[in-house]
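Why show two proteins at once? Because comparison is the fastest way to build intuition. When a single record is shown, students tend to memorize it. When two are placed side by side, the eye starts asking what differs. So, the first record is below.
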Amino acid sequence: MPEIRVEFYSFANVNNTIRMRDGRLLVRLSDLLEGAPESVLESIAHILLAKIYRKPIEPAHATRYRRYVSSRDIAAKAHLVRQIRGRKHIISAKGRVYHLEEIFDQLNQRFFHGLLARPQMTWSQVKSRQSLGHYDPAHNAIVVSRIFDHARVPRCAVEYIVYHEMLHLKHPVKLRGSRRCVHGKEFLEEEKLFPELEHARAFLKTLSGRGLVE
């Protein structure tokens, strides 16, 4: 049995880490979990040890942990912590080719009767192919990968990314038992209303190729 060192750490989210260093197991738990019941801490210990030793995680422990961190009280604290500790780099909504705020406003009128309050809009710092876009509720910001700010990118592809994130604004993540429902039935049905959905999705599949980014 290796020596184990456990400490609570002020992560920007409900994160927990474990690593082996010099024959010791170093564990960091989110300080949001300091008041967690013993049963929840036991589940966290099981999950972390299972991960580092590559063993299967028992469903009961996974469910107990998800239910606790998804509870209203912990979720509210985590949201506040992300706002205070997290950093959001807002670069600019105006790119070389596309202006995200203008696109948001146009889509808002076309599909949402102008009723959605516009969050912060920004292009990402890097031209990511992994994260094409996301809505960050903690900072009320929509971020779109700078890879789309290019003359060879069809406007419908940029509009679709923004429209998708606007749906996250309209349809927040819901909990079903212990699981998070990110794209619910209403979300998916409304996404199909985007006129150039198939064209936009077909273009997104080409991003795995080369030649798009200068």
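Second record. Ask yourself what differs from the first in the token line.
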Amino acid sequence: MVLPYQDPLVPREPSERVIPEPPRKGEIGGEPCGICAGESSPTVWSDENWTLHPPVDCSLPGTVWLATREHVDSFVDLPDALAADFGRIVARVERAILSLGGVARVHLYRYGDGGAHFHVWFMPRPLGMIEARGTVLPIWEDVLPKVPDEELLEAARRVAGAMDAPRV
């Protein structure tokens, strides 16, 4: 693992814990769910269960995020049929991102702290960028030069097109 920073990095103490935690978007007492309200980035692909979206303000073209159509919060809230469908759709998204070329691996992330609507992130690790292997890819993504949102949208549309392409 190689961080995108020079030494010395200085650890700091965590902040005081906030209990109870403030409500997230989409939770009772929080702001409305941005995904349900249609306030997220545009949908580039969808089926009866899932929607696929490009990021904004990102440095890795081919990054996309996948959300449920149904407003559920986490894995434990997914109905059985949707949970069973998750593996199928993840494989399709990964295959589509890999088809872009220049991608060594596709990383899958589920943070769940920004909003209470189930969504996962797919980040392509660029071929040959071995310093970004493992858990540090999002840190590298944060410091690499940002790509124009139009380019991110075009890459996401290419991913969407590859999802609809027949398997070879």
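One difference worth noting in the second protein: Residues 84 and 139 are 31 Å apart (CA to CA).
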